[in-house]
Amino acid sequence: MTRKPDLVCFSSISVSEPKIVNKAAKADITLNSLDGGKNSFSLTLKYDNKLDVCHLPVLRLAFSIPLLNYGLFSKKIILDFDLCESDLSLLNDLNVVFSRDIYVNKIIRRRTNFILPEYFPDEDKIKSEDAEPKAKFQPKKIVKDEMISDDFDSNSCGILSSGGKESLLTYGILNELGAEVYPLYVNESGGHWRTALTGYKYHKKNDKKTQRVWTNIDQFYNFMLDNLKFIRSDHRKVKADTYPIRLCIFPFYVFSLLPVFIDKKIGNLLIGSEFDDLRNIPTEHGIYHYYGVYDQHQDYDVRMNEWYSKRLNGLYQWSAMRNISGLIVEKILVKRYPHLAKLQRSCHSCHFEKNGIVPCGTCSKCNGILLFLLANGFDPTIMNFRKKDINSFPQGVKSSSLRLDQDEKDQSFYLLDKKNKNLEVKPVDHVERIHVNSVTCDPMLYPKQFRADLLKLIEGYTTGYCELKNEKWVPINKIVI
N or C: at which end does the chain have fewer Cβ atoms within 10 angstroms? Predict the structure, then answer.
C-alpha cells in the first residue's frame, strides 16, 4: 500500500510579540523543524506616520495572517502574545478556508512546476480531511473582546490601491460621488511594486491623502518556500504567472493598513474585487473551496465585517466592482476617467523603459487587459503597451490561453470579432449587465449612502441587470434599492 505523502514540515511556527519603534513594527517568525532545527525571519512593516500602542492588536493579527498560508504544513502555530476571542475565532475560520483552498488549488490542481513529484497526492486516495489544517493557533492567553476603536467616518473611504483597473476605477467613482477618498498602497518589496509605482507616484503628487506601507512580505514568502520540503530548491528560477503555494494575500494588506484606518477614522475599506462567476458550490474530492479567490469573494467581506463589529465598530469592508465584469470595469475606467486609465499597470512583470514603466505585453494578465481594451475599441498605448504586442495580439492569442471566466472571454472575443466582421464566437449577454446574486454579488451590500448614485453611474455603461436562476444569468428589471 502506497503511503500518502506527508506535507507537514514543521513541529511549530511561532510569532513573537510585535515591537513598535517610531514608524515601524517588527515581529520574528520562527520555524521549528521536525528534526529540531530553527530558522527565523524578521517580518517588518514601515508606515508614513508614527505608530502607537493602540495599533498593537491589529499589528498582532497582521503578523499572524501570512501563516494562514501554511496551516497544512505545521503541527502548531504559536503566538507569543495574548489574543482576544474574536481575533482567535477569525484566525481559526480563515485557517480552515485557506487550507482547503490551498490543498485543492495549489496541491491537487497544481498549475505550476514547483512541487516535487514524490509529494503529489494519489488522486484515488484523497479524502476531505486531507485539506483540513494540521496547525491550530495557540496564543499565550485568550482574553475577552475589547473595542479597539469605534469612531469612524461613514463618508471616508480607504482603497487598497495596486495600479490595477479595479482600484483606479473605485478611486475615480468614489471621488465623483463626493466621498473623502484615501489611496492606500502596500509596497511588498518585490517586483509587484513596479506594477503599483505609476499609480502611487500620481496619487502621491496629486492627492495628499495618499499613504504607503512598506513591508518585506515578498521576501518572507520566498523564505517560506526555501523551507518547505516539498518545494523544489530552485523555485526562484521557475517562471510562472501564479504563486507556488500562497492564496491568503489580501488579508495581510488589510491588517497592515488598519493602523491608517484607525488614525484617520476611515469608515469604508474597499478592495477592488470584480465579478467572479461562481454559479454553484465548488467541491473537489468532497472539499468545499473558492477556486483560490476567497479573499476576493463576498464571503470574505461578510466575515471581516462580523469581526469589525466586535473590534472596529463602524468600519465596513466592501467592493464597488463586484457586480460588473472586467470588460465593463475597463470600459468605465477608460471612458469616464482617462486620466486614471493611463496609470493602469496590471502586469506583474513590468519593466522600466524611457517612457516609464511598461507592461511585458505577453503574459496572461497583459493578454487579458489587451483583450478588454481592444474589445471596447480602446487604444492600449494609453497604458504603455508596445505596438508590436498590440499588433500581434489578434493572431497570437486564443481564448484557451487566457485565465479569464469563459463567458467574459467569449463576449470580449465576440466584440473584437464583430469589429473585424468575423463572427465565429457567440455573444454572452450577461457579461455586459449588472449581476445580482445574494451569495456572490449583492448590490444591497453597497453602503446606503453610496448605493443609488453608484448603481446609476454603472447603469450608464451596462445593458441592464441580470440575476442567477437555475445556474443561468437571466435579464431582470431594474432592482429596487
Answer: N
